[in-house]
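FAQ
Q: What does a multi-component entry look like?
A: The components come first, one per line:
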Amino acid sequence: MTDKINKKEKIEKSKKKEKIIVSACLLGEKCRYDGIVIENSEINKLAEKFELIPVCPEVLGGLPVPRPPAEIESGDGNTVLDRKSKIFDNLGKDVTANFIEGAEKTLQIIQKHKVQRVILKSKSPSCGLNNIIRKGIKIKGSGVTAALLLQNLLFLEEFE
Ligand code: SF4
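Then the predicted structure of the entire assembly, as tokens:
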């Protein structure tokens, strides 16, 4: 009987936790372009207080793991969303549509779960919030998903 009550309490408690969308690679999911697993202990600790929902826009956009690294050719995620720039992987394949699809699907998940807070992986052409990488150099700008979420006025943070 006590066990049943405890289980019910736990479920009720987890339902009440605020939901946060997190770049899946920061939670140790094998979704990075290089197939390497990373983890951020600071974010793992958030699981005590929040319900963390992992999302990888590039995988949602249909890209495999591992995959060739890709870069936004000019501008940033906003320029891509305006269809004024494209994204190519290092084999020369145009992956723009995958990146846009992944960003749109991420936004749909956020809206479905009514999430206000999103934690993103820095410097990625999808998830980077303040910087992206072009030709090995860190430049100012957002990735495609970060740009779309910013346009939808979500509260975004980024982690290494
Ligand atoms: S940075 Fe974003 S797109 Fe790249 S692997 Fe992590 S979650 Fe996926």
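Q: Is there any commentary attached?
A: Sometimes. For this entry: The longest strand covers residues 18-23.
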